[in-house]
Backbone:
């Protein structure tokens, strides 16, 4: 990637710095992503950087927010598809995204869990956006939206996150199998636990 | 709780300090649990404390390890029960444990995610012990132990953790319903995704 020296608007320059931040995060943790490193890689002064980001924390949050927005954009399913196909294609795009952006993604998960309130909010917004797509589909999937459904869908989202992160590290099964397992898990859980179902045995 | 002033062996004194650590963690985060606070609450000098724990980090790890051992002990199912009953009683004990020890438990989860290698190991050991009990039962449940099964059981463990933490905070459903949903989810996921099953619809 080349960094061309054209005069950019402040907004465009900020976007370019965030892109560079995401790029740098591919090979290091959020903790290692300093303003100094960004300045060096961007070829501009620390002073100028502080014009765009008040401090390292604000820079980190902006980078993680941008990475998350990208993830939501690439996983948006085609609304003309049926609910089950939307689930599968959205999930396939999510797996591809986590695989291709492993460091930024795990930085978000770790940052959210470590107690940074803003990273936690970004994380929860992203997860709500992903699971919100499921809730929009529950009627079409023949299920009712209830506290139990919400609990299970959020639990399934945690299962997906855990499974995909482990899969990128260990590759226990082919990618198509991972997708098949996780896509089948959601209807299975919701159907088996729906009121009136006999207990699983 | 009273702190009696009898002369204890070094091992017993260390255990007592760890118990106090867990007690203190009930109302504050791991970050807020300092050696100073422990010394004050235990009524002994900082100097003496450093005889038992080399630094705050070692103290934190020992507290979290002890809380985790307790959790594994109270959730150990009676081996004379059948596999499905072991799953349900173990899960019920786990929900009760997380409910009663919410701060120590979430400290472990946060600490593991935030990148402390030792907390991560304690967390992974605990989760392996919990899911290991499931793997011991898969044959009895009529399922085969395969990479796909392991991926799903670990994913289900993440679902349980997420659902129970959210449930303690939000109480969306009665506790019996939470238990029913999570216990039913595991066989549902494993059965629906087993090789040779038709795709869920």
Residues:
């Amino acid at each position: 990637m080349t960094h061309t020296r054209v005069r950019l608007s402040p907004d465009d320059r900020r976007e370019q710095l965030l892109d560079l931040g995401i790029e740098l995060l591919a090979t290091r943790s959020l903790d290692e992503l300093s303003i100094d490193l960004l300045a060096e890689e961007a070829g501009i002064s620390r002073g100028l950087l502080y014009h765009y980001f008040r401090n390292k924390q604000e820079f980190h949050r902006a980078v993680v927010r941008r990475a998350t927005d990208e993830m939501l954009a690439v996983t948006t399913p085609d609304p003309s598809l049926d609910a089950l196909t939307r689930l599968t294609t959205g999930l396939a795009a999510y797996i591809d995204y986590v695989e291709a952006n492993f460091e930024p993604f795990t930085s978000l998960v770790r940052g959210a869990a470590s107690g940074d309130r803003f990273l936690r909010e970004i994380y929860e917004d992203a997860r709500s956006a992903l699971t919100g797509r499921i809730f929009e589909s529950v009627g079409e999937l023949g299920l009712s939206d209830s506290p139990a459904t919400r609990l299970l869908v959020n639990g399934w989202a945690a299962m997906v996150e855990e499974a995909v992160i482990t899969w990128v590290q260990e590759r226990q099964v082919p990618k198509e199998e991972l997708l098949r397992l996780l896509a089948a898990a959601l209807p299975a859980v919701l159907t088996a636990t729906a009121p009136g179902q006999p207990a699983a045995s």
Notes: The radius of gyration of chain A is 20 Å.
